[in-house]
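Moderator note: this is an archived Q&A kept for reference. The question asked for a predicted structure of one protein chain; the sequence and the answer are reproduced below.
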Amino acid sequence: MSEISKLEPKVVWEIFDEITQVPRPSKKEEKIIAYLEEFARKRGIDYRKDAIGNIVMYKPATPSMEGKPAVVLQSHMDMVCEKNADVTFDFLNDPIRTYIDGEWVKAHGTTLGADDGIGMATALALLVTEDVEHPALEALFTVDEETGLTGAFNLGTDMLSGRYLINLDSEDDGEIFIGCAGGIDTVATFRYRQEPAPEGMVWMRADLSGLKGGHSGDNINDGLGNSNKLLTRLLLAGAEQLGLRLARFDGGNLRNAIPREAYAIFGVPAAQADPMRRLAERLAGEFAEEYKYTDAGVRLELKETERPATVIDAATQHALLLSLQGVANGVLAMSRSMPGLVETSTNLASVKFADGERIVVTSSQRSSVESAKADAAATVGAAFRLAGAEVEHGEGYPGWNPDPSSRLLKVAEEAYARLFGTQPKVRAIHAGLECGLFLEKYPTLEMISVGPTLRGVHSPDERLEIATVEKFWKFLIELLRTL
């Protein structure tokens, strides 16, 4: 057990510590599924698993609350797997290396997995704690929330009987969420021809790093730098002014993370090597100035490298770089019905060279308005189609419309105010939650989403505020007692 297992409430932190030792990348949840099944078997907890791998554990009501509607405690098993470039780590096999830094729990050089490991740990803790009054509990753990909501899409229609669902996947103490955006992916594929790397060139590698990154829903309005967009500025200027020829571009990883790093390998005619260096120095200064309040650590570094065997053909290079420069990124519209809420956004998530002479550009669009979500995806797709790319849109997922008249919300607000002497904020969130999909299968559910304070999610800066975990625990106990 690590040092975090000694924190309070001990039952929650001990289980969270165990969860951090179990690898659980999206779409590779076999080990965490096995952990959950063993957890239930060892403690005699009744559970069911559906065909996709979702698990529901059941706990009867305490005697004083028999006959009251059952409550679903929902969290997801998988975690975003991001690491710093200089960190050696295997997310399929290595345990997360946690540590305490002042008021926060963090991980060494990787995502922490508190999104949504702390939600899982809290639900499991409620199942094994004997001195908590509660209605019948159904603890639902879904697979693949982060890269497709596969578990929620395929949840068995006979898995739940609860009237209320508490989603444990939010990231702000003192806030209760009652709605979220829907989302869709747009993937553009460029097909190129390999050409021999020209003679008489100086070959260079450019690395864009030091950005904070973050969640493409929660943090999209924070003005954070996008490594793919910034590196494109260098490459496009080099191509148009100095005859740059591109051999490689690799940036970002996950569709739901603002990309923090990117690199490119390219050549310029020998006579243009010094102008290329000066261009990089100038842009490095511009980036530092533009992002001094949001990404103070941004760096653009250039160094010579070996000559590659091939470059991409000039026409595809031109189309790729122009489209990356021109495609929208960031907030597209703010909500008029809920001030301060991002309504529609898009994130240029990753650029990858793939097998078969293909370059795959992945982006994601979100909106709390279904028609605006479709329009944002169509707008991004149109930019790439104009550049000659093949464009595909994902299946997408629905948003969750707020229900401010919900009894669950009223009881939750009262419980929080009674415990902590302050009224919680009631909000919608621009990030995607699984709640909209649950409503499609269980349309009579009343739902809220709550959680302790997390920051830097979907990046190696992810951190969990220790004090808010105990508040979260006490709040859930009080909510269940009075529901």
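Archived answer notes: Residues 268 and 274 are 10 Å apart (CA to CA).
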